Amino acid sequence: MQLGRVIGNVVLTLKNDTLDGVTLLLVQPLSSSREPVGRVIVAADSVGAGVGEHVFFVRGKEASFPFYPVEVPADAGIVGIVDQWHIG
Amino acid sequence: MRICHLPSAICHDEQQIILLARVTGTLVATQKHRKLEGAKLLFVQPLTLEDTPRGPELLAVDGVGAGVHEKVLIVLEGRSASDAIGQKMAPVDAAIVGIVDRVDLS
Fold first, then answer.
1. What is the pLDDT tens value at each position of chain B, 106 positions in all?
2. B85: helix, strand or coil
3. Residue A56 falls within a domain, yes or no?
4. Is the minimum CB–CB distance between B70 and chain A shorter than 8 Å?
5. Is A86 inside any structural domain?
6. How many domains does the structure of chain B reveal?
7. Chain B contacts of A37, Cβ < 8 Å?
8. Which of A3, A69, B27, B44 qualifies as a cystine partner to A85, CB 3.0-4.6 A?
9. What is the CATH number of the domain that holds A33?
10. Cβ A58–B91 below 8 Å, yes or no?
11. Within a domain: residue A88?
12. Residue A43 — φ and ψ, nearest 5°?
């Protein structure tokens, strides 16, 4: 998993049927020192995250597991909202 | 240096599935997917055999009770990672599966 911050959402009218009702959010991956790491990604949300919140997300086929048995075509998925973290 | 002994088709040098790492921090998340309830989340920094950082840090679920500063073995694969926390189909892609006592390199 990776830490990230939700910076926006994506609205789609015409989409794959399996994406019905799935919220798609823009996430900037972050390091634990809050530095942006890599490019902004679009992630499927299964926990009700909102813009500005710190979240953690999975990559790969596990991103669709929260929607099982529906096979959502996602390669990144938000699976938790971060309260706080501590380094060292 | 190859660490993973799985066939090269599924585990090659560029994308190893099992890695040595150092636990660098802890993370608290009250609201998370129900399959992750009770799971401990730790920041880990993958390491080379020489103990230097290797690639970006990750968040991994802890299956063994590791602590900050400990050297651990992590698995970067969904099935094995969810097995490590005893939850089938849990949406996780990295898990700590062992605490390293020592590495003998000949």
1. 444 444 444 444 556 789 999 999 999 999 999 999 999 999 999 999 999 999 899 999 998 999 999 999 999 988 889 998 999 999 999 999 999 999 998 8
2. coil
3. yes
4. no
5. no
6. 1
7. 56
8. B27
9. 2.40.50.220
10. yes
11. no
12. -125, 145
Q: Kindly report the pTM of this predicted structure.
A: 0.88
Residue bearing tokens 């690639």 = B55
Q: Is residue B105 part of a domain?
A: no
Structure-token match 């679920």, residue found = B61
Please report whether residue B13 resides in a domain: no
Domain that residue B87 falls in: 18-99
Among B28, B33, B43, select the one facing A47 at the smallest CB separation: B33
Q: Which of B33, B43, B61 sits opposite A87 (nearest CB)?
A: B43
Interchain CB distance below 8 Å, A59 and B93: yes
| Identity of the residue in A3, A37, A46 whose CB atom sits nearest the CB atom of B33 | A46
| Cβ atoms A85, B25 nearer than 8 A | yes
| Rounded Cα gap, residues A65 and B97, in angstroms | 21
